[in-house]
Amino acid sequence: MSGRLTILVAARDEEERIGATVDSLRSRLPDADVVIADDGSHDRTVAVAEKAGARVVVLERRGKGQALTLAERELGPGPLLLCDADLVGDVGALTATEADLAIAVFRTRDGGGLGLAKRAARSLIAARSGFAPREPLSGQRFLSQRARDTVFPVAMGFGVETRMTIDAVRAGLVVEEVELDLEHRATGRTVRGYTHRGRQLAELVLACGPQAVNYRGLRLPLVGSLVGLAVPSVLPVAAIGLADDLWSGPERGFRAHLGSGATTGTLKLVGIPLFALARTRSVSGAILVGLAANTVNQLDTRPGRALKAFAIGSLVIGGTPRRAAFSAVLLAPYDLREMAMLGDAGSNALGAVLGFSSVEKLTGWRRWGAIGALSLLTVIGERRSLGATIEATPVLRELDRLGRFG
């Protein structure tokens, strides 16, 4: 192991246990720095951890994966040991392996539920990487600098461990499981326990799907395809957007895509209007749908921005299909809280919904007026970016930040 070891612990409302955990880690690994990633605690977790000798990175509440990602940036280079806040036992043996990623396996299982989340995580890891872990959800993990560079930023929430193992194996890193005498607080068979495991199950499934890194550097699941599933009439648009999510290059804007030849961005520029032309049998309708999809997509650079544009557009044109509105309302809190991203699949699909609804309601000069307005927004986006325009306009800036973290 080269470089100074840092122990990183994600904690939320752990004042009763964090002191003992820090004391234990410092006594067993005295040469390591202990850092607590406090995920928006409302109790005395921060004060207790600092009194025990740990450094604390205080964060807004976003979830385990986001807390680890944001805190990891505050650390110097070197190997990393991840631990849970309620850990009891010696994890020092993890640092003695030659593996890039060493994962602790609890020798004795204490309580717990029915094992659904664990079995699901094990199956997802095997399906995505071919690796068959004994303990897919263990939060006790040693990462070499190479592993740290590979897996960070980590997946959001409780999907962090599952996706971390997948990423490490697929990158060709050496992954090893080490059986240790450890204990931690078991989640019992209570309403609270089953709620926790249900959330854990949902988040680890999302962590194994398409991912993207947002403007803050957080790695989030791309959930915009749900719009296409909710509104089948724009499913082809969502599929084209998903292709751009998965395989897009660094090109941004019309000129960059056209200058680069065959890219997923070019597919959007051509495919969405062609689909709209086939549906509307109107050139002006195809132009309107294409511009609407592109405009909402251009706005999807900050949490909630594209969804707010969709809401305003819906009001302006007098409403959109209920399923589209329902999906937007459903996704809004996750997008605003940086727990998920629409991506090109969702933003283009929502824009296409606005476009098709406009084609139905606008004719003649009104339709061409809408085309002119969207063309102007496109030009602004190409020359300056719509985001810069929003930030420079006080009213738009305040509306844009409404409901967002940070």
Describe, in plain words, how this protein is organized in 3D.
This protein is an alpha/beta fold. The protein has helices at residues 18-28, 45-51, 64-72, 116-129, 145-151, 160-170, 191-207, 225-230, 235-247, 254-260, 264-280, 283-299, 305-317, 322-336, 343-361, 364-383, 386-392, 394-401; strands at 6-11, 33-39, 55-59, 80-84, 88-89, 101-106, 141-143, 175-180, 182-183, 211-213, 219-221.
Q: Which features characterize this protein?
A:
seven-stranded mixed β-sheet; alpha/beta; 11 strands; 406 residues; two-stranded antiparallel sheet; elongated
Shape: elongated
- The biggest beta sheet, please? 7 strands, mixed
Low-confidence stretches: none
- Which structural category fits the helices and strands? alpha/beta
Strand content range = 5-15%
Order of helices and strands: EHEHEHEEEHEHHEEHEEHHHHHHHHHHH
Number of helices: 18
Q: Give average pLDDT, whole number.
A: 90
Strand order of the largest sheet: 3-2-1-4-7-6-8
Fraction of residues in helix? 40-55%
**CA-based gyration radius:** 24 Å
Query: What's the N-to-C terminus distance?
Result: 37 Å
